[in-house]
């Protein structure tokens, strides 16, 4: 049993934490933003974070952070921005040299596998965050529905094997926690990643007469389900005059959605801004009236929370993580992600009630501040480290106990032999005396 003093000492200790990730700068996505926000806050609190990531020479050259280590990788063909590490030699030695306290895996790919390997080899505790619904992204590697379904089942089995090797599996929302438990993943704990509410601040009300701007900001991929927004846009435009949709972000489905806008005859209602730098996103939030979030892929939905932090109510898909923070008539409205009429209705209500919903949106975002979320994560770290130390102590105690038993057993044998030897000497002496007399 750990003493109160030992517990206080452990939770006040400044930690050395190793992050392993299959995506990092210069990539910009939800995982990278989560890692950057958490890293910054942990370092602010005095902890040290070491990043192990897939990448290339160019990424290594651009990133001057001495605590970031890139490993040679090849592009993932269907989505070249993502890299697959092919040579990860040296991670174990660096971890040993840095004397890390805990390993945190932010992916289940090659870098995630290295995290598990290093954990076992060095006897360090490891936690893993499930950031991405990879089981729902099988369309990147298979075009047929049957093959996609087979791959989905296979991936769940892999996730089960992978995350059950972690001391804790961290997920950002309750719905993902439920799915993980249903599929046999143990030790699941909910801990959302935080947003920078000091950066994403509300701006004053927009001027009357300005065009009503509906914003989507994020990766442009099919799983973000933008077709439901495109198909709902004419109905929205009929009910809300002077309305426009701004799509910010890049990705492999960008041309697909641009073509869809033309085919649907709503080209005049849409502007595709393409990918932007992280520091530029704030101006798009400030120039919008509401945020539309049709994704069927979210484990958390950081862009929706950033939008709320800027005072934008959200019309969001009633799917996976989004209902965790979008609440009807409080900070936005939910819609069926496969029903364009329902999407249009929720978007219109969100626009019409935006002034009232603004307050709820800001209040919701504050619950997800990076300060609060990082403190929750630290509680998990300390708990895992504490349990690992107790386990090690028990292991040492058990080894000592086994060694003690062996010593006692040897001493007993020696003692018995000594007694037998003395008895034999006495017997021989007695026989000699008898013979001499």
Tags for this model:
437 residues; alpha/beta; Rossmann fold; 8-stranded mixed sheet; 6-stranded parallel sheet; 15 helices; 14 strands; 49% helix
List the helices and strands and how they pair.
Elements: H1 4-11, E1 16-21, H2 30-44, E2 48-55, H3 57-62, E3 68-76, E4 79-85, H4 91-98, E5 102-105, H5 110-122, E6 126-129, H6 145-163, E7 168-171, H7 174-182, E8 188-190, E9 212-217, H8 227-239, E10 243-248, H9 254-263, E11 270-274, H10 281-286, E12 290-293, H11 302-309, E13 314-317, H12 322-325, E14 332-335, H13 340-352, H14 354-366, H15 370-436
Parallel strand pairs: 1-2, 1-5, 2-3, 5-6, 6-7, 7-8, 9-10, 9-12, 10-11, 12-13, 13-14
Antiparallel strand pairs: 3-4
Helix pairs in contact: 2-15, 4-5, 8-13, 11-14
């Amino acid at each position: 049993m750990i003493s109160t003093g030992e517990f206080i000492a452990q939770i006040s200790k400044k930690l050395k934490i190793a992050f392993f990730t299959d995506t990092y700068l210069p990539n910009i996505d939800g995982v990278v933003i989560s890692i950057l926000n958490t890293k910054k806050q942990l370092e602010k609190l005095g902890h040290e974070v070491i990043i192990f990531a897939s990448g290339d020479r160019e990424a290594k050259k651009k990133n001057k952070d001495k605590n970031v280590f890139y490993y040679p990788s090849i592009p993932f063909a269907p989505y070249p921005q993502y890299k697959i590490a092919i040579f990860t030699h040296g991670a174990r030695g660096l971890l040993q040299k840095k004397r890390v306290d805990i390993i945190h895996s932010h992916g289940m790919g090659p870098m995630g596998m290295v995290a598990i390997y290093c954990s076992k080899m060095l006897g360090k505790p490891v936690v893993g965050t499930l950031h991405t619904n990879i089981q729902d992204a099988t369309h990147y590697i298979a075009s047929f529905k049957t093959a996609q379904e087979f791959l989905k089942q296979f991936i769940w089995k892999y996730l089960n094997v992978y995350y059950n090797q972690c001391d804790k599996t961290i997920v950002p929302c309750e719905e993902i926690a439920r799915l993980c438990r249903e599929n046999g993943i143990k030790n699941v704990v909910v801990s959302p990643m935080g947003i920078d509410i000091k950066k994403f601040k509300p701006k004053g009300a927009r001027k009357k007469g300005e065009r009503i701007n509906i914003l989507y900001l994020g990766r442009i991929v099919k799983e973000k389900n933008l077709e439901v927004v495109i198909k709902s846009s004419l109905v929205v435009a009929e009910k809300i005059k002077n309305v426009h949709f701004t799509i910010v972000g890049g990705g492999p489905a960008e041309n697909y959605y641009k073509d869809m806008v033309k085919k649907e005859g709503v080209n005049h209602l849409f502007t595709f801004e393409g990918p932007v730098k992280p520091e530029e996103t704030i101006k798009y939030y400030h120039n919008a009236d509401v945020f539309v979030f049709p994704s069927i892929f979210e484990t958390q939905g950081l862009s929706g929370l950033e939008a709320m932090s800027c005072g934008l109510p959200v019309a969001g898909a009633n799917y996976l993580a989004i209902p965790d923070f979008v609440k009807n008539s409080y900070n936005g409205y939910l819609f069926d992600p496969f029903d364009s009429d329902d999407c249009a209705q929720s978007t219109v209500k969100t626009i019409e009630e935006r002034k009232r919903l603004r307050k709820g949106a800001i209040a919701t975002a504050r619950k997800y501040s990076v300060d609060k979320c990082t403190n929750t994560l630290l509680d998990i770290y300390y708990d895992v480290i504490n349990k690992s130390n107790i386990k090690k102590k028990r292991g040492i105690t058990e080894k000592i106990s086994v060694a003690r038993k062996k010593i006692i057993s040897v001493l007993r044998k020696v003692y018995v032999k000594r007694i037998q030897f003395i008895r034999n000497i006495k017997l021989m002496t007695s026989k000699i005396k008898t013979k001499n007399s």
